[in-house]
What we know:
The protein is built from 15 helices and 12 strands. It has helices spanning 2-14, 46-63, 73-85, 104-115, 127-131, 138-141, 160-166, 188-194, 212-222, 236-245, 260-267, 278-284, 303-314, 317-330, 336-347, and strands at residues 21-22, 37-38, 67-71, 90-95, 121-124, 144-146, 174-179, 201-206, 228-232, 248-251, 272-275, 296-298.
Amino acid sequence: MKMIVTLYKHSLINFPASRIIFLERIESQYAYVEGGIYLNEKLSSFRDYLKVIMALDETIKVEKPDAIITFLPLSNILGAVLGRMRGVKVRIAGQRNPPQIYGTVVRFLDRLIGSLGFYTANVCNSIAGMMAFDSYPRAYKKHLSVINNCVEPANLKESKLEAREAFGIQDTFFVLTCVGRLHEQKNHEVLIRLMKYVEGAKLYLAGDGPLREQIVKRINSEGVENKVVLLGDLNRAEVRTLLRATDVFVIPSKYEGLSNSLLEAMSYGLPIVFSNIPSFTTFLKLGASSDEYAGVLVKKNDEEAWAKAVLSVLENKKERERLQNLSLSHVSELTAEKMTEKFLALVN
C-alpha cells in the first residue's frame, strides 16, 4: 500500500487529475489519503465483492481515465477487465508478491487475463518476483518488467542516542530489529530462538498480527524474556526512530516480495542479516557473477546458523562499517521520483 500511495502522490505533480481508489478501507497508516475513493468498508461476502465491482465500473465510467495502474491480484484483475471494457487503453498491473502465495482462483484469473493481453504492462517489484512467473505462458511473460520499490530518505536529524532514549533503550547493548507482521511468513520464531546464543544484545520486534500469542509463548519457553521486546504496531515516525536506534536489521522471511522494511533499514545504513529467499538474494547480490551480498546471507533456517551470522556482525566493528556502507550505496538510486518516472514511462 505504501508504494501505490507514494506513486499516486508523485504522479500528481505531472498529472494533477489523478485519482487513487481503494477497493476496501484497510486499517493502515497509508490507507487514508486526501481525495482517495473508498469503494467499500470491507470485502467479506459475495455481496461486498459485487458491490465493489459495480462501484469500480461506475467510477471508471465517470472518470474516463487515460490509464489505470493497479497493485495486487484482485485490483489487477478488476482494473484490467473493467478498464478494457470501458476503453481504457493503458492498463498496468503491479505484482507485489510471488503468485504462488495467492489462492487458486485468483492465480487462474490473473494468468488467464494476463495471457489474453488485458495487461498492457505487468510490473514486478524485483527480478526474483518476475522469475516467479517463469512457468507462465509466453503471452503472459512478454508484458513483464521490473520496477523496484522506492525508499523514503532516512531521517538522520535525530541522533542515535535520542532515538534510543525514545524507546527507553540502554546504550550498553546492541539492538537487533525486525519490522513486520507477526505472521508465519515473517518467521519470527527463528529470531527468538537465536537469542539464546547472543549476549549483550536485545531483539526488538515491531508489528502485530495473528501469531502474537504464540510468539509470547515461544519467548517464555525459550527463557529469553529479558532479551526480546514486542513493540506492537508502530506508526511511521516510530518505525523510523526505531531504525535510528538499531545496530543490525534482521529479516528471516520465508517468502517475500521486495520488502519495504528491508529497503528502509538499508536507507539508515543498517547492516542486514537476511534469509535465503530469491527476492532477497537477487536484490542484495553484488554483481551478477559475484558470491557477495550487501548483507549477511543465512542459508539455513535454524537458530545456530542465524546466531553465527548475527554474532559475525556484532563482534566485528569493521564488518559492521563495511555492511553499513554497502546498505547505503545499494539503495541510493531507489528514489520515489525515479520509481514514478519509470511507471509513467509505461503510460506514455
